[in-house]
Amino acid sequence: MYSPVELEHEQTQIERALNELGIRLINANTPQAKGRIERRFRFFQDRLIKEMRLLDIDNYTEANKFLEEEFLPWCNRRYTQKVESLHEAIRGNKDLDLIFSVKNARKVNKENTVRFCGRIYQILPFNGISGFCGRWVEICELLDGRIEILWGDKELSYLEGRSKE
Fold it and tell me: Full-prediction pTM beyond 0.85?
C-alpha cells in the first residue's frame, strides 16, 4: 500500500478510477482542445435557447421533450460525423462498485483502528496478521453507502463504532 506523500501528486478520484479501469486520461491542456468543447457549449446555450423561445417553450417538461425529440436528432444529423467506436470491453474481472467508490488512504494506529468521517473502524485479524499498526489501508465509500477497508487488494473485516470526539 502507498502513503499519499509518496505520490508525485495526489490523484483525484476520477484519475484513480480511470487508472484502475486501464483508461488513459488525456487532459485538454491546449487552447485548441478547450476551444472545441467551448464552441459546442456556446452553440447549445445560444441556439437551443433561441429555438425554445420561438416555440414558446417555458417549462421543463416541454423543454425536455423538445430536446430529446427534435433538437438533438436535428443537431446530430447536421453536425456529427460517423466514426468507428473506440469503446472496448472492460478486461479482467473488475469490481466496478469498488472502482467507482471514493477511496481515502488512512494509516492504522496503535489500537489497530482507523478513523473516518466521525467513526472508528477496528480492523480484525486477517490471514494470521493480527495487527496492522503503521500500515496504510484504503477506506472505500461505495455508492450505496457501504464502507469497505482494503489492504492492497485484500478486503479486511472490521467492527464499527462511533468516535467519542
Answer: no
- The domains of the chain are located at 31-79, 96-162
Are 16 and 103 a contacting pair, CB within 8 Å? yes
pLDDT tens digits, residue range 116-160?
Answer: 998 999 999 888 888 888 999 999 999 999 999 999 889 999 998
Give the helix ranges, DSSP H, for 87-134: 96-99
Amino acid at 105: A
Of 130, 132, 101, nearest to 13 by C-alpha is 101
Q: Alpha-carbon distance 108 to 28, whole Å?
A: 38
Instruction: Give kind and range of the element (H or E) at residue 39.
Output: helix 31-43
Q: Which residues of 79-111 are buried (b: 16+ CB within 10 A; e: fewer)?
A: eeeeeeeeeeeeeeeeeeebbebebebbebeee
